[in-house]
Amino acid sequence: DVARMFNEVLVLATKDAIKVEQDIEDDKLGGQIRIRAKRGLWGSWAETDVSGAEAAQASAASAVAAGPIPSADVATEE
Predict the structure, then answer these.
(1) pLDDT tens column, 7-28
(2) Which residue would you say has higher pLDDT here, 54 or 62?
(3) What are the residue boundaries of the Rad21/Rec8-like protein C-terminal eukaryotic domain, all occurrences included (predicted)?
């Protein structure tokens, strides 16, 4: 699961959809990782599924506008 999460974060960061930051204290590994959504997360590329086909969408009448995703702090265990 960790490798899959890393891959997903890498893909989203490459597409400029999220910002990833890690605290570095005293040149030690294992600082907190912060992942923040960027405007690109809601870009046109996000409307397609993995194969590149248009994703199924609910009818426009029942669609709800998505708000920004709050940042998530991921703490590492020591």
Answers:
(1) 999 999 998 999 999 888 877 7
(2) 54
(3) 2-23
The whole-number pLDDT of residue 13 equals 92
Residue written as token pair 């959504």:
37
Q: Residue 39 and residue 18: Cα distance in Å, rounded?
A: 8
Tell me the two tokens of residue 44.
């046109």
Tell me how far CA of residue 41 lies from CA of 17, 23, 26, 76, in angstroms.
Answer: 4, 23, 33, 25
- What's the CA gap between 10 and 4, in Å, rounded? 10
> Among positive and negative, which fits the CA dihedral 50, 52, 56, 57?
positive
